[in-house]
Amino acid sequence: MSVNSVASALTPRQEEVKARFIEVRGTWSEAWEAVVRLDPDFLEAYLRFSAVPWRHGPLPPKVKEFIYIAIDANATHMYLPGVRQHIKAALDHGATGAEIMEVLELTATLGIHAMNVGMPVLAEVLSEMGRRPAPELDARQREIREEFTRVRGYWHSSWDDTLQFAPELLAAYLEFSGVPWRGGTLEPRVKEFIYIAFDVAATHLYRTGLKIHVANALGYGATPEEITEVMEIAAVLGVHAVTTSAPLLAEELAARAQPPAPQPPE
């Protein structure tokens, strides 16, 4: 049962907040309809919070939408209603399908953090046990590191243990993660914004990667204000506790408000 199928007309206050939301954010959904009916004051406060990047941020609208897509689509969140909403909005702001696909490809790299986190732990335990092999690189490992640096534009010590213990995995990951860097259309600094977005998101909070990609973005010419805006957009992710649950609450309240079904005569 949808919120709109049995609901009464909005009050003037609810209509006011809804109109302001659409004016500022350019979108509306059944989830927001449930929220505005249940608590228009909350929605108005959220609008002020989420609108800061839209009113003051330097990023173009379609790049803002790319950030939302990365935050919603990444493997630690996978909030599909938001993905669809922000894909539509990005297209409305002039994004191409190829650009949005590139955002998704960049976002798909998040899983490699299993290696960035896990391999140093393996190396640490082996060292404690006196079993860690010498960290000298062979010719193949040096080749992988050089190719990584060439394609991805950087090298960081967080890759060292993966290079030592799983060089062929790292080589395969480079081929995978390098697709947007070899043939993508997004500017390098925008690519880095995508990494920043899912690393800083509350569902991930991967500080090592965040620091790497902030430095990379600055190196590609990003401004502190642009990077701050990426983080401001990520900061509103928590509202999905409301957008996923408010429609359920509205449905349960509506069901309880309906008169009981008539009983057949005995």
Can you offer a commentary on this structure?
By secondary structure, the protein is mainly α. The chain has one domain: AhpD-like, CATH 1.20.1290.10. The chain has 17 helices and no strands. α2 runs parallel beside α4. The radius of gyration is 23 Å and the shape is elongated. 30% of the residues are buried.
Number of helices: 17
Q: How is the CATH topology named?
A: AhpD-like
Along the chain, the helix and strand elements come as: HHHHHHHHHHHHHHHHH
Q: Could you tell me the radius of gyration in angstroms?
A: 23 Å
Question: How do the strands and helices of this protein lay out in sequence?
Answer:
Blueprint (H helix, E strand, L loop, with lengths): L2 H4 L5 H14 L4 H9 L1 H11 L1 H5 L4 H13 L6 H13 L4 H11 L5 H16 L10 H14 L7 H6 L1 H11 L1 H5 L4 H13 L6 H13 L4 H11 L5 H18 L9
Structure in a nutshell:
The protein has 17 helices and no strands. It is mostly helical. The chain has one domain: AhpD-like (Up-down Bundle), CATH 1.20.1290.10.
Features:
disordered N terminus; 266 residues; 0% strand; mainly alpha; AhpD-like; 70% helix; 17 helices
